[in-house]
Amino acid sequence: MAQQIRHAPATAAEVQSIVADAAARQRGLEVRGGGSKRPLRPPVAADALLDMSALSGITDYDPDELVVTARSGTPLVEIEAALAERRQMLAFEPFDHGPMFGAEAGRATLGGIVAANVSGSRRVSMGAARDHILGFTAVSGRAETLKGGGAVVKNVTGFDLPKLMAGSWGTLAVLLSLTMRVLPRPRSETTILFKELPDEAANHLMSAAMALPAAVSAAAHVPLPRAVTALRLEGFAPSVEARSRELMRALEPMGSGTAIEADESRAFWHGVRSLDALPRDGHVLWRISVPPARGWRVQTLLDWAGARYVYDWAGGLVWAAVPEDAAPVPTKHIHAGHVHAEHVRAERVRAAARSLGGHAALIRAPAAMREALNQADRAALLGAADAHSGLRALHARLKAAFDPCGILNPGLDLAAEL
User: Fold this and answer.
1) Do residue 412 and residue 377 come from a single domain?
2) Does 228 map to a domain?
């Protein structure tokens, strides 16, 4: 295979020129920022790498208007540091995936965060990354400059293109800059811990807490090594203290809670985001999204797997670390060597998610296993009756409108997850 050409544009004009040339030659471009989330997706079959990391820097920040604009290659840590100086934050709590794959922290960029729609534990109360994008500029696969939204919160004229960019993984357009809404950083935070609750009871407790007027900002359950269910409250200290007391009183029939203060609370939630409780070596990591009240049922449907779990988003996000040599698969599922055990295991994980009204995405696996699963997925997609053909047809139309030659991140089939 020929060595991949690397482009490192430093201006919007250079990006447009590179994309125009690639479109004219019909050569694929792998769009990448810091590369911290690259292992989350199958390899891109592209002739050249479009490295956006040089297109960096905060171009406008108005703390009074709660708006920040930055180029897409700006490191997340740089933006967070600038906001922290004014006691502000990106409220959807984005995080760096790099350490999940053994890479150094600090490589995540704003463009990558938005392209992957990354949202942390506060997603359950403040929404996802897509809910905090006010505007953007980008270059489409046609080499046309796109602009959407603006620099004010109340801007809903025309199509909501900023939301379309979130989660598109660079398959529709190359992001150049983004304008984000920011919010004041909470003055105080407290996390209430409930110990030794089974998964089902913990899920019911989180659902009950989210339904109460306590303004819980995050809810998570970590079953092992010792089961802990956590509810976070944020705001002004007197309000947090009063809401904590009322919340513990209301939930007392379901369990006895203990409050931990700011430093310990921040450390706990950092551990939830970085999945400290889950094993890495010898395990395949799945990200399973289901309706929050059904999160606990993932464990019951995957009882064959001997997996370890972390439940975030009040049960709506389940991280599952499944042993690579999970429970034996019945031989009747393996046909003439065409379907291997890992294929059947993967389908059982995905089927469990679908049965609960959600979906599962493979996050971390050995390279050979990931490639084998990707090939099986492509074959199944081509040969199976498609229950979501309408959604996939819509996705195909969007791709044709923004990138008709298919040059942007070719090989990333987002429709396969629908």
Assistant:
1) no
2) yes
- Burial (CB count <10 Å: 0-12, 13-18, 19+), residue 318: buried
- Helix/strand/coil for 214: coil
397 by Cβ neighbours in 10 Å (0-12 / 13-18 / 19+) ranks as: exposed
State the CB neighbour count (10 A cutoff) for residue 404.
12
Query: What is the residue type of 241?
Result: E
- Residues 129, 2, single domain; the answer is yes
Which position has the token pair 């199944």?
A: 380
Give the type of residue at 67: V
Q: Which residue has the tokens 């790099």?
A: 98
- Which pLDDT tens digit goes with each residue over 58-108? 999 999 999 999 999 999 999 999 999 999 999 999 999 888 877 788 899
Place of tokens 């690639």: 22
Residue 286 carries which side chain, given as an amino acid letter?
W
Cβ contact 70:110 at 8 Å: yes
Is residue 278 one of the residues assigned to a domain?
Answer: no
What domain range includes position 227?
A: 188-273
31 and 174 co-located in one domain: yes
